[in-house]
Write a structure and sequence with these properties.
With 173 residues, the protein is α/β, with parallel strands linked by helices. It is 34% helix and 35% strand. The protein has a single domain (32-170), classed as Lipoprotein like domain (Double Stranded RNA Binding Domain, 2-Layer Sandwich). It has helices at residues 2-18, 54-69, 146-170; strands at residues 39-42, 46-47, 73-74, 83-100, 103-122, 128-141. It is elongated.
Length: 173
């Protein structure tokens, strides 16, 4: 009887995988991109924020996220990449999120938010595939002065924005 239950459980699991329900979760096997799109060139993001040098940190985070995702390889030559990505950082804001119960002028938690405008094109055809604004956010506790807290939160918000950028580009096809 035990063997029969194991056989039925194995058959159900195999049926689930073969019907594709395993591919509808957060993980996917293979790429969702057309087969002719294998590489991406990521230009250094333009910075229209008031935060100096943020563009290099965000560009690096986006490159790492494309590498982690693995569906597109990074090509440093815009003349040979299948897709070109250009982006402009529009704003980096840090706003109070939670105030101290005893002092409504002192924030205990902040929300950092970066907004960015993306343009992704197929290089050979010049076809614009993505024109979109994306946002990355994070929250963080108030520690020391706001400038230090804002600087420390930048890595988290950069990773979050990078995921949004990759999702926007890869999800466009």
């Amino acid at each position: 009887m035990k063997t029969r239950h194991l056989f039925i459980a194995a058959a159900c699991a195999a049926a689930a995988v073969l019907t594709g329900c395993a591919l509808r979760g957060p993980y996917m096997l293979g790429s969702t991109l057309p087969p002719h799109l294998k590489t991406i060139n990521i230009a250094t993001f333009k910075n229209k924020t008031e935060e100096p040098t943020i563009e290099s940190r965000i560009t690096s985070a986006v490159r790492r996220e494309f590498q982690r995702d693995g569906q597109l390889k990074i090509d440093d030559n815009a003349d040979t990449a299948d897709i070109t990505l250009e982006a402009t950082l529009l704003a980096y804001d840090v706003d109070p999120l939670l105030y101290d119960r005893n002092d409504n002028k002192t924030s205990r938690r902040y929300k950092a938010k970066i907004s960015c405008h993306l343009i992704a094109k197929e290089r050979k055809t010049g076809k614009v595939v993505v024109v979109q604004n994306v946002t990355g956010e994070t929250t963080f506790p108030a520690m020391g002065d706001t400038v230090t807290a804002k600087r420390n939160a930048l890595n988290d918000v950069a990773r979050n924005l990078a995921k949004e950028v990759v999702d926007a580009v890869v999800g466009a096809w």
